[in-house]
């Protein structure tokens, strides 16, 4: 038997899952979906989940709902799924050599239906919205969340409203939300302004909020950990490396692993490592200051005003899920690193050399691994899984600009900073002559 409730991570107050709340009504703390299991061993869970991999049922084919013993209860007819998940783990020998380690694998969540990991959380979020009778949903987004929410809302027949920061979103990502019929509200401000406003509006209207402050969304994303371990025959890696933006993904992965630990599926937590961009690094700043203060209950993140990175998916100065991220780091003896724009761009190009590609925000994982390996924080022989969060086509302009040598940004002093194309792959310009083409083909 599994009983489910919502529980505040601070004061431990519990609420029924039918409550339409996003934070604790007593202390404003973040909420967890919690499960009280009886009579289900870790071995039994693994047997059930492994047995579903060959099932023709849609909910078993989903890389989220396959693990429904540890998901909020939902009737099969209520579940909104696009058979998300089932994303592969790929070896990346060129990236490993670049990072200075023996072996590296990537779990590429960009291979989900809308091209990012957000689909894993949106299937549970939209399903909960449907269960609660919501006829409209909303989110603030830098791109991936809007695409995913719009697609799943369209499948469910629910209206979708997207709050976006003005001029700070990849048009490739925004095109998805437009195509799926969402209403786009462009806010004069940054992502943090959009996030503040959508939370205020959701608290005063029928809109059902689907940012990562919603605990039901993170329940879907925690299955990243379940599926990863299932693909590895339930063998733990030493470390899981995750990009850090709003911090919902790292929080969800840590929660999923902790639930497996509590149920005896695994015997220890792998080390969660979160990597942020230097210009949007509030968790890195907090962790550097307070690391090791296990009993400290007064931790408070300092938002980064005017947060900036060309990796727009993680351009967030005030991450909502930071308390859960800190909890996950403490559970796993984790680490936090920051990387520069140049390091991100070069790492992205190197991931492309392994034939998989990714959006810029994903590449912070490889950049962070390389930096930490050089500093001795990561051993060359560690068993590493790095998370790629989004598809390479999410931000094609970034890729083309890097390889053509035109990628740049304006820093806080209003100076233009050019990104070097250290691993660029430029066009070969030739006259329309047979001999010139043959020479280029044969002698390059």
Task: Give a structural overview.
This protein has a domain at about 90-115 and about 215-420: Rossmann fold (3-Layer(aba) Sandwich), CATH 3.40.50.1100. The chain is globular, with a radius of gyration of 22 Å. About 50% of the residues are buried. The protein has about 450 residues and is of the alpha/beta class. Helix content is about 35%, strand content about 15%. Strands 4-5-13-10-11-12 form a 6-stranded mixed β-sheet, with helices on both faces. A 4-stranded parallel β-sheet has the order 8-7-6-9, with helices on both faces. It has helices spanning about 40-50, 60, 95-100, 120-130, 145-155, 170-180, 190-205, 215-220, 225-230, 250-260, 280-290, 320-330, 340-355, 365-375, 395-405, 435-444; strands at about 1-10, 15, 30-35, 90, 105-110, 135-140, 160-165, 185, 210, 240-245, 270-275, 335-340, 385-390, 410, 415-420.
